[in-house]
Design goal:
- The protein is α/β, with parallel strands linked by helices.
- Helix content is about 35%, strand content about 15%.
- The protein contains 5 helices and 5 strands.
- The protein has a 5-stranded parallel sheet with strand order 2-1-3-4-5, sandwiched between helices.
- The longest helix has 15 residues, at about 130-145.
- The radius of gyration is 14 Å and the shape is globular.
- It binds ligand CA2.
């Protein structure tokens, strides 16, 4: 069967990467990250679907789309990580590998960032590697998908 793409989904405010708060998130833009993810996926002979939204429902819809069209999900849900049972429930309905990703080490930040609804539905969690985490996440998502790994 032909390999389906890896969905790389980004939540609220991540469109501001590289423009605001560079002391926390660095100077790399989301477009740069998308280009890097494309390179990483291509090396693993995969495609990616790379998206960002500031709206919870859009992310839920894309997770549903990935149930039909994708082999794995990498998700940085932004602040929705800490609040969204809807994203948790949608991810639970996805049978392939899910990698939760955060640019920063959320456990060194405010306590409200320490809890994640996404982690309950994730295969693996990567945080604190900066934007390089996307590369690691896509590489590992491709590996897990190639192994036909389910959650
Ligand atoms: O570390 C991460 O990747 C986060 O998911 C980023 C979220 C934050 O709410 C999570 O706790 C951790 C925030 C993304 C907002 O990104 C911005 C980038 C530039 C300027 C302002 C916000």
């Amino acid at each position: 069967m032909t390999a389906k793409p890896i969905y790389v989904l980004n939540g609220p405010n991540l469109n501001l990467l590289g423009e605001r708060e560079p002391h926390i998130y660095g100077y790399t833009t989301l477009a740069d990250i998308e280009a890097n993810c494309n390179r990483t996926a291509a090396a693993a002979k995969r495609g990616i679907v790379f998206r960002q939204s500031n709206h919870e429902g859009a992310l839920v819809d894309w997770i549903h789309e990935a149930r039909r069209e994708g082999d794995a999900i990498v998700i940085n849900a932004g602040a929705l990580t800490h609040t969204s049972i809807a994203i948790h429930d949608a991810l639970k309905a996805f049978s392939g590998p899910v990698i939760e990703l955060h640019i920063t080490n959320v456990h060194r930040r405010e306590t409200f960032r320490h809890h994640s609804y996404i982690s309950f539905a994730a295969t693996a969690v990567i945080y604190g590697l900066g934007v390089e985490g996307y590369h690691v996440a896509v590489e590992q998502a491709a590996r897990l998908a190639a192994e036909d790994r389910v959650k």
